[in-house]
Amino acid sequence: MILPVRVRDRDLRPHKSAVAPILDARTVLTKSPWDFVSLWLKTNSTKPAQLYWEQARRFASASTEMPVQSAPLLHYYSFMNAAKALLESKGLAFKEHHGVRSHNMRSASAVIDLTNEGVRIEKHGILPALATYLGDTDPRNSYSLQEILFNLSFVHRTYCLTYKTQEDLFYAVTEPAYKFDTNTSEAYLSAYISRDFAHQKYMKALPASFVADPGGNDPRAIRSTATARISQAEITSSADMASLNALHRTLRRDLHYIAGAQTLWYVKAANVPGPARIDRSPITLTLAGMHRLSEICRYRPVELDAFLSGSENWLLTEFVLMSPEQYLDAIAAEITGHQFLLPNVRIAT
Asked: Sorted alphabetically, which Pfam families does this protein's record hold (predicted)?
């Protein structure tokens, strides 16, 4: 028999925090995570973590008055300080430098382009320490801005509309929830591919962590290949919770979300034609991408203007405008283990 996994009388669903989610906690309803995280750090962390977080907040506040051409500089320093707050809150040592630099991928005669404007992640520093904590597994350390933007779910629709022949890398899923098989005493994640992707070619492109659900009563049903051994559907023991946390962390490598009034979940395909798939957290990629834009903003404003006046202007503008909310939501979840939603917003049932 297949039963829903339940914690404190609620069905267990994917969590925004990939590394250390508090799976049995209620969702925090707030217009912004800034205050909640600030108060949480005062109770649960160190003075430096609090200072990093407040510095991140000040840069974020200042960025709201800046145009798209100038905002990347303040966004990056906000993102970087938030990353430092995360690392400090987890007691992790890190070198006090960026840990990421530009990577020129074009020849002397080539024009500036997303395909040849790149970043390199170094061995030491803030960004590599963050990537290690988040469990990044990608063997490469150099990426073009085009590859980074392609691998971010929150601008992926914009990417595909900018490059009109590009196939989707992210497949929307509905009703994601953990299930318990009483015959095997194993828990797994169950979901349905959105009707927009209800075709065999999308099922065949699923990452190895997900397959079509052989026990599902719908051709759109999928499930995780990985499972967690637990004692019962109603979670009451710390051992069962630890098993589910381990499963969740594994699945979140291929399970991404977009923050908003409601959380939208996506499975990241194994591979599709186009830029390379990057096996890194969207937090890592967002920080790396904004670092590159901040450098262009500071040192090559004429080239940034060329970017923003070219065929990819909408894509870059959407990244600059949308990444602060997405990055804040994700890193606040990683710091506290809680997930956040706007209050007074509920889908009718």
From this structure: YaaC
What pLDDT was estimated at residue 301? Answer: 81
Q: What is the pLDDT of residues 170-198, one digit of tens each?
A: 999 999 999 999 999 999 999 999 998 88
Residue 56: strand pairing partners:
none
Mean pLDDT rounded to a whole number for the chain = 93
3 state SS for the chain: CEEECEECCEECCCCCCCCCCCCCCCCEECCCHHHHHHHHHHHHCCHHHHHHHHHHHHHHHHHCCCCCCCHHHHHHHHHHHHHHHHHHHCCCCCCCCCCEEEEECCCCCCCCCCCCEEEEECCCCHHHHHHHHHCCCCCCCEEEHHHHHHCCHHHHHHHHHHCCCCCCCEEEEEEEEEEEECCCCEEEEEEEECHHHCCHHHHHCCCCCEEECCCCCCCCEEEECCCEECCCCECCCHHHHHHHHHHHHHHCCCEEEECCCCCEEEEECCCCCCCCCCCCCHHHHHHHHHHHHHHHHHHCHHHHHHHHHCCCHHHHHHHHHHHHHHHHHHHHHHHHCCCEECCCCCCCC
How far apart, in whole angstroms, are the C-alpha atoms of residue 78 and residue 18? Answer: 21
User: Sheet containing 100-104: which strands, arranged edge to edge?
Assistant: 100-104, 117-121, 142-144
pLDDT at 348: 42
Q: Using CA atoms, how far apart are residues 78 and 139, in angstroms rounded to an integer?
A: 27
pLDDT digits (tens, 9 = 90+) for 60-75: 999 998 999 899 999 9
What distances in angstroms separate CA 59 from CA 62, 71, 260, one per listed residue?
5, 10, 22
Asked whether 316 and 308 are in contact (CB, 8 A), the reply is yes
